[in-house]
Amino acid sequence: MNYRFAKEFTEIKKELEKCQRVLLVAHSAPDGDTIGSVFALREYIIGSLGKKAKVTCSDLLPQHLEDFLEGGKVISPKKVNLPDFDLIIGCDAVERGFEKIVPSKIENQKIILLDHHTTLRMNKIKPDIAISDEKYSSVCEILYDFFDFHRIELNRKMAEFLLLGILGDTGIFQHANTTPKVMEIAAKLMKKGASISRIIRLVFKNKRLETLKLWGRAMERAEINPKTGAIMSYVTKQDLEELHGNAEDISGVAEILNTVSGTKFSLVLSERGEDRVKGSLRSEEYKNVDVSEIARLLRGGGHRLSSGFEVKGKLTKDEDGWKIE
Ligand SMILES: [Mn+2]
């Protein structure tokens, strides 16, 4: 096999062998890829290397990931004492909150960032080792290559964490990032004991009734702009409060709207807090739209097919329709 990141993989292994205590950082509004990758690493660091590792995330895990982890612990950044760690690893969408948790680097501390988005923009921190490559479906796929490169044996748990991230970021093998290599990796992970049906049951098919009701409201409001090919909808603060909506629910709306034929991309606006509006953008490879360009115009980020932004304002309605004011 040809490893694009042989040099980085070698350096990462060296750092893991040198260090004593590792802090693993998942991104805010955590998804299967960020959680799968930090927990696969945690399992390796504790189980195989016999070192200490903690996982932190600024948001609580959605219920389905809680169920999947069966008690796997994620600590709040407030409880993290950064000088305790000699190695910090950020996994997936590191622009989503890594520098909030790790605002600066302490002497003798090493930082590794693993990502698969277009840009790896860090304002204050220069990582010691960084991988960010859009050719990868997920950070879990990068980690699979890392373990494979070093011939590190995967146990059932590690295999299942990696498969969780791959299933999450490929939309259960539905997105264009589902390459033959991804399918081969998935098969190998299954041979190590990872169960696709268990992951799907726990993570993708245990919706709350409120989620479906929230989707119902958003779908009813959906409209297509024939000029841009955008399909748009919105979720108000009131909807989110009444139906206990979360970030996952909203990205679900954007994903479903994106399946409407003839559309170029989907945009779901959602009110957050008192005066913020978040936009979630989705597209598909064959639609030939880079939604990260739209997100970047509004100082957001993400990758070509899945991006987001946040602006100040409220959703208001007049005779021309809904606006952000
Ligand atoms: Mn990812």
Features:
6-stranded mixed beta sheet, 5-stranded parallel beta sheet, binds manganese (II) ion, Diaminopimelate Epimerase, Chain A, domain 1, inorganic pyrophosphatase (n-terminal core), 325 residues, alpha/beta
Describe the SSE topology.
Elements: H1 6-18, E1 21-26, H2 32-48, E2 52-56, H3 63-69, E3 87-91, H4 98-101, E4 110-115, E5 129-132, H5 139-149, H6 156-169, H7 180-191, H8 196-204, H9 209-220, E6 223-225, E7 230-235, H10 237-242, H11 247-257, E8 265-272, E9 276-282, H12 291-297, E10 301-303, E11 306-312, E12 315-318, E13 321-324
Parallel strand pairs: 1-2, 1-3, 3-4, 4-5, 7-8
Antiparallel strand pairs: 6-7, 8-9, 9-11, 10-11, 12-13
Helix pairs in contact: 2-6, 3-8, 5-6, 6-7, 6-8, 9-11
This protein binds manganese (II) ion.
The site of manganese (II) ion has 6 residues, from loops.
Could you explain the architecture of this structure?
It is a single chain. The chain has 325 residues and is α/β, with parallel strands linked by helices. It has 2 domains: 6-204, inorganic pyrophosphatase (n-terminal core), CATH 3.90.1640; 209-324, Roll (Diaminopimelate Epimerase, Chain A, domain 1), CATH 3.10.310. 38% of the residues lie in helices and 21% in strands. It is built from 12 helices and 13 strands. The strands form 3 sheets. Strands 6-7-8-9-11-10 form a 6-stranded mixed sheet, with helices on both faces. Helix 2 (32-48) links the parallel strand 1 (21-26) and strand 2 (52-56). It is globular and about 65 Å long. The termini are far apart. Manganese (II) ion binds at residues 33, 92, 116, 138-139, 169.
